[in-house]
Amino acid sequence: MPLPKAELHLHIEGTLEPELAFALAARNGITLPYADTEALRKAYLFDDLQSFLDLYYGLMAVLLTEEDFEELADAYLARAAQQGVRHAEIFFDPQAHMVRGVGIGTVIEGLGRALERSEERHGISTRLIMCFLRDQSAESALETLEAARPHLHRIVGVGLDSAEVGHPPAKFREVYEAAAALGLRRVAHAGEEGPPAYITEALDVLGVERIDHGLRCMEDPELVERLVRERTPLTLCPLSNVRLRAIDVLEEHPLARMMDAGLLCTVNSDDPAYFGGYVDDTFHAVREALGLDQERLRELARNSFEASFLDGSPEDEALRARYIAEVAEYSFD
Ligand code: ADE
Ligand code: ZN
């Protein structure tokens, strides 16, 4: 049995496996520019974030109906259960679908249908986080939030993703203020490829509670001190960092040093269909590459629940306490 854990940094579109992509393409009468699943997998050689995003957005062409989104999410949850995931906070990119003529209601209701059955079917509690694409305009983000209003009961918070460099967090001040006024929680990708200053800006200007990635905080000791002091969770994605060439090899990943520095680190899979592993695979990989001992792994699992948004009600708190107790009781042999 894998270590119980929460997954807090997971793009649902990044769980689209080649087999499902081809099945959905056939069902929807779409021709993909790859001969077969093997040819598609061979294209998964990325130079950086942008080269990945080009493929990732392109493959979304197969996602058209509520059923497609429901199937995608259900397939992820089934895999996540096998990986010891007990709670998942799942990102989605509505703008990447709306530009293709797929309505935000189709996306959210389709995902929502899978998520509402998740506890019963997969034993996983879930939350949904709507991300704005930072390489689109601030107006587009505001329009997206407005379009999501009939579906906000399905969403716990907002995030910010896509091409980071050149798109600093402050561009999205207004939409984050509007989201906060609607009672939504706030997170943002920062310090993946972008500089440490983007992390500071996400905290100060957008008021985020967690930083997605945050890898590059290690270049700024004062920022590290602040993140430690404020106990700001970082949702790290080590396999993603290697595949997108933020670091050369997993053995050089700063995760262990970050934990030693007192940072509240979590380990996540980001876009597991593309990066060679789901979240427990990632735990195993970092254990091997960085020599993490059992107590470090247990700390990562406990952190994942502590950093989760399971704090909105007494029921949520009770669930979180139960998960944390499962981590404490877990036996590695
Ligand atoms: N969208 C999907 N995965 C992403 C990542 N790792 N960084 C930014 N945007 C993303
Ligand atoms: Zn991400």
Automatic annotation (TrEMBL):
EC number(s) stated in the UniProt entry for this protein: 3.5.4.2
Function: Catalyzes the hydrolytic deamination of adenine to hypoxanthine. Plays an important role in the purine salvage pathway and in nitrogen catabolism.
Protein name in the entry: Adenine deaminase
Keywords: Hydrolase, Metal-binding, Nucleotide metabolism, Zinc
Cofactor, how bound (note): Binds 1 zinc ion per subunit.
Catalytic activity: adenine + H2O + H(+) = hypoxanthine + NH4(+)
Pfam families tied to this protein: A_deaminase
Active site residues according to the UniProt entry: E192 (proton donor)
PANTHER family: ADENINE DEAMINASE
A single MF term (Gene Ontology): hydrolase activity
Site (Important for catalytic activity): H213
NCBIfam families from the UniProt entry: aden_deam, PRK09358.1-6
Family note: Belongs to the metallo-dependent hydrolases superfamily. Adenosine and AMP deaminases family. Adenine deaminase type 2 subfamily.
Domain Adenosine deaminase: from-to ranges: 4-313
Entry binding sites for substrate: D271
Named cofactor requirement(s): Zn(2+)
Binding site for Zn(2+): H9, H11, H189, D270
This protein's record includes keyword Hydrolase: yes
InterPro entries, per database record: A_deaminase_dom (IPR001365), ADE (IPR028892), Ado/ade_deaminase (IPR006330), Metal_Hydrolase (IPR032466)
Domain of life: Bacteria
